[in-house]
Amino acid sequence: MRLRRVARASVNTPRLIAAAAREVRRADPLGTMVASVYQIIGATAALGVVAAGKLTFDALLQPEQAALGITPSLLLLALATALSGSVGPLQTQQHRLLGERVSQRVWDRVLDTTARADLVTYESSGFATSLERIQQNALTRPFAVTTSLLGLTGGLLGVVTLSAVLIGVEPLLVPILLAAGLPAVLLSRWASRTEFTFAHRLTPLARRRNYLRQLLTQRPYAAELRAFDSTGRLREKHEELNRDVNAGLRKQVRHRQLIAALTTLGVAAALTGALLAIVALVRQGRIGLAEAGAAAIAVRLLSGQLSTLFTAIGGLFESAPFLADLERFVASVPPAEARGRKRALTEGVALCDVTFRYPGQERPAVDGVDIRIGAGEVVALVGENGSGKTTLAKIAAGLYAPDTGSRRWDGAVVPAADVRASVTVIFQDFVRYQLTLRDNIVISDEYHDESDVEDAAKRAGLLAATRELPDGLDTMLGRDLDEGVDLSGGQWQRVALARALYRDTGLVVLDEPAASLDPRAEYELFADVRAMLGGRAALLISHRFSSTRLADRIYVLDGGRVVECGTHDELMSRAGQYAELYTLQSAAYR
Ligand SMILES: Nc1ncnc2c1ncn2[C@@H]1O[C@H](COP(=O)(O)OP(=O)(O)OP(=O)(O)O)[C@@H](O)[C@H]1O
User: Fold this and answer.
1) Which residue's alpha carbon is at the smallest distance from atom 18 of ligand 1?
2) Which residue's CA lies nearest to atom 26 of ligand 1?
3) Full-model pTM
4) Domains of the chain by range and CATH?
C-alpha cells in the first residue's frame, strides 16, 4: 500500500516538481531570479576556466601562435577561477533568504489546512501523525526542489557547454563521461523510495519522543514530575526511543552511504576513463599538449557538473514523495466552510434524538439524546465520568456534527459554522494564553470597545485582580515566554470566564467553570449566575451539585443517554440516580 503510494508519487514527479517550483517563485520572485542568475554565472564561469586554461597552455607551449601572452592568460584564468569559486558562498547566503520565504509560504498552507480541519479530524491520531511527518519532512521540500532545479539548470548548462568543448577535442570523451549518468539516476530513484519509507516508519517514534521531551522540558509539567520523582523513568523511555531511532537511522544511513558510494564510483570511473582516453590521444599524436591540458580541465569540470546534475536529479526524486504527502495532507481536509454568522437566540437550542460515535469506537458516546436549552435558561448536565457530558456540549456548540438526529437553533437546522459563531464554550482544560490579559479576553476576532472588555472582566470577578496587575489589562500573563505575571488557577479560570462573556453569544457552555475557584468565589459565581450571564443561556457541566442545583433544568446522563430530567426538587423527589449522587456528595460535608 505504502509502496504503491510511493510509486504513484514517482509517476506524478514532474507535476509535483513544477508545482513546488511555482510555489517558490511566488514566495519570492526576485530572490528566485537572483538565485538563478548565480547558478548561470557559476556554470559559465566553469567554461571560462576551461577557455582561460587553454589560452594559458597555448601561451606556455606555443608562445609564437598564442592569442594572448602568458600574463594576461594567467590573469584571465585567475579571474575565471575566482568567479567560479565565489558564486557558491554567495548562493548559500541567497538561499537562506529564499528558504525562509518558502518555509513561510508552506507553513501558511499547513496552517490553512489545520485551521479548516474539523475537531473530529483534528483529534484523530492519523491526522496528528500526518501533521508531524509533514512538519518533520515536507516543509523544507519545496525549497529543496528549487535548489535541485537550480542545480539542474546550472548543471545542464555546464554539461552542455563543456561537452561542446570536449566534442571539439574528441567526441568519444563525452559518452564516456555521460555513461556514469544512467546508474546515478537509477540509484537516486532507489534512494528516494528508501527515504520516504524511512520517514513513514520514523514518525510515530519521533512523535512519542517529542512528547516525552515536552514532558521533560516544559514548565506546566515540572512540578508534578518532581513531586513524583518521575524524571528518571521518563528518561528511560526516552532513551529506549533514542535507541529505536538510532537503529532505524543507522540502517537508512548505510543504505544512503552505499548509494552515494556507488554513484561516486561511477563518476570516478567515467572520469578515469576519459583521462586515459586523453593520454591515448596524445600518445597517438591526434591532439597537442595544449589541447590535452584544456581537455583534462574540461573533463574534470564536466565530471563536477555531472555530479551537480545527478545530485539535483536525486534531490528531485527524493523530494517528490514528500511533496505528494504534503499535497495529500492539504487535500485531506475539505475546503473551508463559509464563515459562520452570529445568530441571536430568541427561543432556544434543542438537540433532538442525537447520536454521536467517535471514529473507531464501538459504542456511541451520546445515544439518542433529547435536550433543550431555552433562551436565557441555565441548564445543567450531570452524570458520572465518561457519561458523555463534554461530548454532548461539543455537539451543542457545533464542534461535532451528530451522526443521527438534529441540532436546532430557534427551531431550525442551521449551518454548523453559524452555531459555532453563536455559542461560546469554556472547556475544563481551557487555554491559558501567554498574552496580555486584554488579549486573553479579546481572543475572538470580533472587536468591541474598551468598556466591553472591562465589563467582561468585572462580571467574571476580575476587577480587583486587574487593579493589582502592574499594567492593568495590558499586563502580560504567564511565564512561559516572557517574564509575565502568573495567575493562580482560580484567577486563570476567571480570565476564561471573562473571555466567554466578552464574546457575547446567546448560549454559553461552561464545562466545570468553578473547578479552580475557592468556596467563596464559587458561591459568588453561582449565587448570582444569572446576573453574571446577563441574559445569555448557559449549558453548565459540573460534578458539584451545589453549582447545578440552581439550574432551570438538570439532565442526568448515564452511558451516553439521558436517564433523568427535571429541576433539583423534582429529581430529589424522584429518588433516582440524581438523588443518590446528590446525597452521596452532600453526605461528605455533614
Ligand atoms: N476524542 C475522543 N475519542 C474517542 N473517544 C472519546 C473521545 N473523547 C471522549 N471519548 C469517549 O466518549 C465517552 C464520553 O466522554 P465525555 O468526555 O463526553 O464524558 P464526560 O461525561 O464529559 O466525562 P467527565 O465527567 O470525566 O469529564 C467516554 O467513554 C470517552 O472515553
Assistant:
1) 388
2) 385
3) 0.75
4) 14-332 (1.20.1560.10), 348-587 (3.40.50.300)
